[in-house]
Amino acid sequence: MANTTSAKKATRKIARRTDVNKARRSRVRTFVRKVEEALASGDAAKAKEAFLAAQPELARAASKGVVHANTASRKVSRLAARVKALSVSATA
Fold this sequence. Notes:
Number of strands: 0
GO biological process, one term: translation
Number of domains: 1
Structural class: mainly alpha
Number of helices: 3
Largest sheet: none
Radius of gyration: 18 Å
Family: Belongs to the bacterial ribosomal protein bS20 family.
InterPro entries: Ribosomal_bS20, Ribosomal_bS20_sf
Keywords: Ribonucleoprotein, Ribosomal protein, RNA-binding, rRNA-binding
């Protein structure tokens, strides 16, 4: 348990930051899940729309340090490839 005033304040700050980061991480997962569901349903237009909404959320999470920048980039890249593959197969 923290004894000094500064250590007690630090634990309060950490708790607040943890809550904010949990909310951000949850928000990112929700947006990614919407893309996944659209891909699973086979709706190319809906998948593209969901992907365009998820992309800035991932970038924001990376800029805030909630997820690593490379992780966000990898997720965007893989989702983009799957959305593109779906739209190509839908038009073909």
